[in-house]
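Continuing the batch. This is chain 6 of the set; chains 1 through 5 are on the previous pages. Same settings as before, nothing changed between runs. Recording input and output for traceability.
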Amino acid sequence: MPNPFNQPGSWLRGNVHTHTTRSDGYLSPQQTVDEYAARGYDFLAITDHLILTDPGELDPHGMTLIPGAEMFVPGGSFGYPFHVVALGGDRVPVVPDNVPPPEAMRALADQVPLCFFCHPFWSLIEGHQLLPLQGHIGVEVFNQTCRGHTGRGGSESTWDFLLAHGQPMWGLAVDDAHQPGDIGQAWIVAKSESRSPEALLDALRVGHFYSSIGPELRGLRRHGENLLVQCSPCEQAVVLGAMAGSGRASYYMPGLQRPFEEILLPFPSSDAWLRVEIIDEKGRKAWSNPFRPEEL
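Output for chain 6:
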């Protein structure tokens, strides 16, 4: 993943997991688009269960609308299938139900430009269950509606388990909006050379984005043996390594003036993958995608 902060293009904010009255949401597709546009979003994917909404049917209010659907792949835990958001196709993909989960997931991934796993903590999906499944770009690191309804919004541990086992995948923060109160609580910010659906999907595919429920991540740069993190005013920052117990946090740093907008954190040693989290005064987080130190 080349450092997205060094790439050409503009930063665009969007949500890529959204429900409407076409499945189990409270607002119509157009009302949903209206709400996100009013909050200044740049792109949106409506992803109702097993239903594709044609963006051409809607007034986008200047946003880029990406077609998508939330699909179900057999496997999962406790009788629940894997939930997977599929983005960019022109029809609802077909998931075979009479084949092993890895084969079903591969069949789904082959039909759409990209897909990712939804809310593993809410689904009680363990990392080892995801290891055999291929063809996706990552997992939801945060899901607002899961936080709001069950308190199971974050899935960092599942993400880190997969990274530690050599799967360099991205982490996405999403609203998974079902009701108005979910809207605008979590988002991704993508570095894209244009606002076209194709360019945005390309940016997501290669990890040129970060995820947030509040703070802005403004830069990641190597500074000798340290990592320079630039951000909106924050209280804490951490760089996490891929291995167990690996990471460097700002919590005990002596003399650190808070809030800060720049901070130097030592690189954890001997880690193939690193990722960064920042936390603002309200306890809200932002997450970088994983990167190799030599990519900065």
